[in-house]
Specification:
Largest sheet: 7 strands, mixed
CATH topology: TIM Barrel
Number of strands: 10
CATH class: Alpha Beta
Structural class: alpha/beta
Distance between the termini: 39 Å
Radius of gyration: 19 Å
CATH architecture: Alpha-Beta Barrel
Strand content: 5-15%
Shape: globular
Number of domains: 1
Bound molecules: iron/sulfur cluster
């Protein structure tokens, strides 16, 4: 099959947008390994390993970079990413074996770096909860973000990890506008439920933050939207606030997002294509101005970012 990742041409006709979600299919699979060693740790990321529980994500965000990996697995229908979810049913025993290996270097693990660990499949399979018990048993530190308040179910075990080894939990927030949320994160839990989850994490003494990721050009990059998010972070008292701009890597991701724009935000279609051209990111000038805007509002509202404190032994290049 042709690898769209390598292509630079864009043909919006090959995707349809999932406007009419049907039943989700869970496909149980077995894996040989659990932890994935990050090739270049400690750049902008504070972790050495990643651990993914599910492949595909029911939240169905139209810009999700993981659409590409699902395509690569052989799921060629553009809806499959949010409708056919692979579940790694033997993951916990493999993880237990890997963490029991005395030669394994202990370091931070990012849970669900590719897809959301608390997507709806987690209600049934509880892989995140079971994995946390393994991390707590071996005193390994964990960091992750989610668009679901299901995380509150696991406050007890997250607190144990936080006290024993280190734990940082973020809610990923793209917008505070419920109308926009329907476009940006069609099957994620409501904004208010995620903010409430942050309040509960904070009250439980678990380090928590907001991931303003991605900031979407022409959709969520306004002064008003960014200031409102920073203000919310200050009001809740989260410990960190990290952000990044929309990355559109490869034709699978670009195709789905551009088609979603064409369907839901027609006026933004042409200018977004122009901004990204055939690039993964917008031009440097756009990114520089955007990041300065975020910094300005963090300063205006006196936000104290403790992100680096949690990973004081790491040389982080961003945030
Ligand atoms: S919640 Fe995250 S992993 Fe899931 S679809 Fe949205 S961006 Fe992708």
């Amino acid at each position: 099959m042709t690898d769209p990742f390598l292509s630079t041409s864009y043909s919006p006709s090959f995707v349809e947008v999932d406007d009419n979600p049907k039943e989700v299919e869970y496909i149980e699979i077995k894996v040989k390994s659990a932890l994935h060693h990050v090739r270049r740790p400690y750049g902008s990321n504070p972790f050495y390993y990643t651990l993914n529980l599910y492949r595909g994500c029911r939240h169905g965000c139209p810009y999700c970079f993981a659409r590409y990996s699902h395509w690569f697995l052989g799921f060629q229908n553009s809806f499959d990413f949010q409708r056919k979810i692979q579940v790694k049913v033997n993951l916990i025993e493999v993880l237990e074996r890997e963490l029991s290996n005395p030669r394994r270097k202990k370091d931070w693990v990012s849970l669900g770096a590719v897809t959301d660990p608390y997507q709806p499949a987690e209600k049934k399979y509880q892989l995140a909860r079971k994995a946390f018990h393994v991390f707590a048993k071996h005193s390994w530190p964990v960091v992750f973000s989610s668009k679901s308040d299901l995380v509150i179910r696991d406050l007890d075990i997250l607190k144990e990890i936080a006290d024993k080894a280190g734990c940082a939990v973020a809610m990923t927030m793209t917008t505070l506008d419920p109308a926009l949320q329907k476009f940006l994160e069609p099957h994620a839990v409501s904004i208010e439920r995620r903010l409430e989850a942050l309040r509960k994490l904070k009250a439980a003494g678990i380090p928590c933050g907001i991931h303003l990721m991605p900031i979407i050009p022409f959709v969520t990059d306004t002064d008003e939207a960014i200031e409102a998010m920073v203000k919310t972070a200050v009001e809740i008292g989260v410990d960190y606030f990290v952000y990044n701009v929309l990355r559109l890597r490869g034709e699978v991701v670009r195709g789905y997002y551009f088609q979603a724009l064409k369907t839901h935000q027609k006026d933004l279609f042409q200018k977004t294509i122009k901004l990204y051209s055939s690039r993964t990111y917008p031009p440097d000038e756009y990114i520089k101005n955007l990041f300065e805007k975020v910094k300005l509002y963090r300063e205006k509202w006196g936000f104290q970012n403790r992100w680096r404190e949690f990973f004081s032994d790491k040389q982080l290049s961003l945030f």
